[in-house]
Amino acid sequence: MGGRRQFHGAKELFLSDHFDVQSAHTIEGKCTVHSFKNYTKLENVGTDDYFCRFEYKAATGAFTPDRVAVYCKCEMPYNPDDLMVQCECCKDWFQPSCMGMTIEEAKKLDHFLCSDCIAEEDPKRASNSSSVSHLADGKTEEKYRHYVDTLTQRIQTCDLILRQVDDTLELFNELQLQHQVVATKTKTLCDACDSLLMEKQRLIEFADTLRIVQFYGRIYAR
Q1: How far is the CA of 1 from the CAs of 7, 18, 59, 114, 133, in angstroms?
Q2: Nearest to 130 by CA among 101, 95, 107
Q3: Which UniProt keywords apply (predicted)?
């Protein structure tokens, strides 16, 4: 069956192939229709902000696309108008109501692990535990510390690579300076060679002049 479904947001509109004629007096104002991706990036959703991610076929009541990614245990598509919490372990998103929490309780959470991730840590604890996991509890705290340690190691690795990059750039700058010095000395040598060539040419011309004078001097001596 077509039509609006549970996961459709309160501010979700549908691009439709249906056309109708309405009186201008029924128009209350303008609104801004964002793409689904841009709507989820809005820091503050105004009263005039709406979004669209489906095309609705009025004749068949079908939506395009007919498949979207699903989340939570209820396996419903993401509704950006409803609060969802992310599991720190599996990174999946969950609706508070499906996790046995109220929205107010979910907003107060500093950390959250879903029941499946808790079950992987401690199967006996999973049957009686709620979805809310405080990091002071045994293996959850240990897993969180491991998570933090892993992040710390990655940060240290990044810092090491950055230092190596800085060293490489410093060496490159030194090579550039050396190249500039060599280029300057090379230019000086080239200028000196040019001067020597000019002096050589003058000496050749002077020697030729002396030879001519010597030749005529011998003729007059006879």
Answers
A1: 15, 18, 12, 32, 39
A2: 101
A3: Metal-binding, Zinc, Zinc-finger
- If you search the block for the tokens 């669209």, which residue do you land on? 52
Q: What is the pLDDT of residues 106-129, one digit of tens each?
A: 888 888 888 888 877 665 454 544
Tens-place pLDDT, residues 175-205: 888 888 888 888 888 888 888 888 888 888 8
Provide the token pair at 181.
Answer: 């010095």
Residue 139 and residue 121 in contact, taking contact as beta carbons nearer than 8 Å: yes
170-172-173-177 Cα dihedral, nearest 10 degrees: 140
The 8-class DSSP code of residue 34 comes to E
Residue type, 206: F
With tokens 């991610």, the residue in question is: 53
Which of 142, 90, 87 shows the shortest CA–CA distance to 109?
Answer: 87
User: What residue type is assigned to position 112 of the chain?
Assistant: F
Distance of CA 76 to the CA centre of its chain: 28
Alpha helix (H) ranges present in the chain?
36-40, 103-107, 115-121, 123-126, 138-221
Q: Which of 61, 58, 62 is CA-nearest to residue 20?
A: 58
Q: What is the pTM of this model?
A: 0.40
Q: How far apart are CA 124 and CA 127, in angstroms?
A: 6
**Cα–Cα distance for residue pair 135/112, rounded to 1 Å:** 9
* Residue corresponding to tokens 């003058």: 202
